[in-house]
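Inputs:
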Amino acid sequence: MIRLFNWFRRGSLERGLNREIQYHFDRRVADLTAAGIPEPEARRRAAVELSLTQVREEVRDVWLGRWLRDFLYDLRFSVRSLLRSPSFTATTLLSLALGIGAITAIYSLVDQVILHALPVREPGRLVLVDWNGDDLITGGIGSFNLMPYPICRELQQQTRFFEGVLCRAEIEVNLTAGGDPRPVAAEIVSGSYFPVLGVGPALGRVIEPEDDAAPGAGPVVVLSYDFWQAQFGGAADIAGRKVLIGNHPMTVVGVAAAGFRGVDVGAVPAFWIPTSMYADANLDTDEDLLNNPTRWLQILARLRPGVSAAQAQAGLLPWFRPWLEDSARRPWFPVITVEKRRLYLASSLILTPAPQGHSPLRRSLSQPLWLLFAATGVLLGGLACLNVAGLFLARGSARARELATRLALGASRSRIGRQLLADSLLLALTGGVLGIALAPPAMRALIAFLPHDLAANALRPSISLDLLGFALLASFAAGLLSGIAPALHAGRDNVVNSLRERGGTGFGGVRLRKAIVTLQVAFSLILLIGAALFLRTLTGLLAKGPGFDTSSLLSFAIAPLENGYSRADASRLVRRLDEQVRALPAVRSSAAARFAFLTGGAWSNNATIQTDRRIVSDRSVNFNAVSPGFFATLGVRLLAGRDFDQSDSRPAGEIGPRCAIVNQAFVKRYLAGRDPLGVRIARGGHTDVKPDSPIVGVVADMSYRGLRDDSEQVFFPLFESDDTGATFYIKVRGAPEQAIPSIRRLVRQDDPRLPILWFRTLDDQVNRSLNTERMLAALSGSFGALALLLSLVGLYGVMSFVVTRRTREIGIRLALGATRASALRLVLRDAAAMIAAGVALALPCVAALDKLVQSQLFGVTATDPATVAAAALVLAAGALVAAFIPAWRASNVSPTDALRLE
Amino acid sequence: MPSPRFPIPQGTLDMLILQILSLEPAHGYGIAQRLEQISRSVVQVNQGSLYPALHRLQQKGWLRAEWKKSEIGRDAKFYCLTPAGRKQLAVEKDSWARLSGAVNLIFEEGSR
């Protein structure tokens, strides 16, 4: 350490040493002349005694240490020599920065989604408790690993194995905190949640066991640190504020520790509320969730120190068996068959280590992320390293004479190898730093492309210390990997041979590198073709459109049931709002639908059709319920029959819709060749379904789930007694954005506590529905561009190498009368062979991948000749340009210079 | 014509420097003169090796250096022993005494 410090103050050290030695020298000379020796002789004697140069060198060794000194000089030399060849340095740095930036970005996502342990006390002791066995009793609310609440309570008594047990569920609630109400993601948790995790408050207090003691006991809210900062500006007086959760007033009692974002990477809660308040949190249930077997929570437990998950799992069995027996005798236990009962009683609990908490996001993303990580690591990182190694070899061959001269002058092989290693490490670390600078934008891009809306909230494009370490490690590895071959190469060459060597010989490694470049070309061509295909799919879908005119079309949605409305009240509210919206001056027409279009989801079921015989649809039919005027508002053509009118709405008490409208696809598939009007249909394929709704109209096809959707659709009339339809479609005059405030005002006037779930133009909705397509196009595009760039750099490197090696040969050819054009051709022919081989390799691969990607494509096949040709053309053009630079250099070789190189 | 002298044994130069500086602080030339007196009678010290040794000892923290006016009125770099250096000198003296004692013992045994 001192030595490294000495390097930076070596100037002042040198000055001090000079003064010190000068003093010695002067005194010695003075003493010698005093002793009668003439001054010139005295000076000579003093200088010999001190052997000045050697003293300085030895003292410098003391300051820095031999090794460090050599290394630092190596580095300085490297910097100078790299600055002397800027094009080499730039291409190498570009390769490395791209490779390392890409790997780092993906690693950060892998880290955040898969590897990162929760920021809680000793996350290693957390286990997820899951039910293993027949899941008969009831369906659950939500997603994975769900457990009933009572078992959580009872597990807390198992103190032999557990220090504590918590349960939690993610919920969406409507929050009103001074402003418009809006839906917010939250976590409903047991009172043990914070104590078991060991997470404390940043302000106020967290939820405590008392808050969760009995239903309704704790109307308290604990905010997440991020939400407190973002929504409340980090207000210091937040504790004690009242907010509305749904319709229920609750009190903010504190803010959780910064950095804690719940136990699920995929669902970041804005705040936490105790399970005792589940009835107020609008879980859309009238059941007594705290005392029945509905599975709606995940259970995490903290193992006692020294207890393993397997031990606890085995140890719980003696308790769990009687618990099952007992639960089967409870009044809420459903009536089931003997067989089912036996399966139920054979259930057990499984404990899996969960240091990263519980995460369906991890489950769904971990495989693609690892794949992506492996792909970038191997492909981009590997290609970047190979490129750099190639460039180094090329440069090494150009420097062969310099190195041979140094060897001949007595430099040791290890010394020269070390010099080359210093070069590559220096480049790698600089490339790494550039890569780290590239990483955050790359991460932002990646996160934007991840399929889940959730991912955008849960993942952050930030550089952590871990990540810095990873990037530096990666660049260090890249430096070693790419530097080691040239370093070994330099050590192996025989001095005499390399001094004698003129070129033409020693093509070692060229064939391998040509093969690598060929593969690179093939690989980037595949990616380019992929990118082109996905781009064409995207433009094709956009051109096709949803089957209706999206201009000046707005939509917004509400969820009155979640705010405590009864079904009848909700239905009245929707009808009222629909009428009021239509009366606004800016609105041309308006309609409502039960389910939103173009969101990926649909209300699907089989359909039963009664003609002269009874038919059940052979695949799912998509249903919706719409208000009169819906098709006219969207501009969907009515092909036959009539639209719904007010008289179609079913009065209270009547069962089943009065009539239906089907789309063209439905007619084509099930009613081909007959008059669809009057045919009776019903929803469902069961034998007891009575088809009694007559078809009164046929409409043109429109997209329901997404733009690709060409499904059979059936529409029923909205505004029936129990209908809760809540997505409004509004055709406005002028710019859609201008109408939004007046519509918002309308909803607020009716119920200030009712949040508007979203408010979008349909153009925006269409764009959103294409997220996956856009992601595929962008990912394959950016990967393709990166790979193309890297393979072009690789090609350039190889060609430069070849040209350097053949300089003499080319010189002789030129001297013997070859034209410059022929020299150019000579080199380009080489490159063209590699490009052609790469293309030839890629095409069968594309054909093989056809089946795999066909389902993702629209309006184009994977082997579409125009697309393939265009991609190949782009690649070939780029590759020829990359090869042209060294070829040009070759053709400009001056014969005399080339021969003088001897 | 210099009389035949021993080359200084490896490693003893450091000990000699510490010993000289334990009496009083001195600059490089002063130490050299002092070594010269010793070497004239017994051992041979290469003046050039003095400075690397001084810098090494300073880096180890056994010596401290400061610029002061010397006896001829010019600035010179004076070295003095640090407490750590004083301890080191004691250690080296001790191990030297044990080594030479052991060697003497062997010689005496051989001559008996």
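Chain A touches chain B through 22 residues (CB under 8 Å). Flag for discussion at group meeting.
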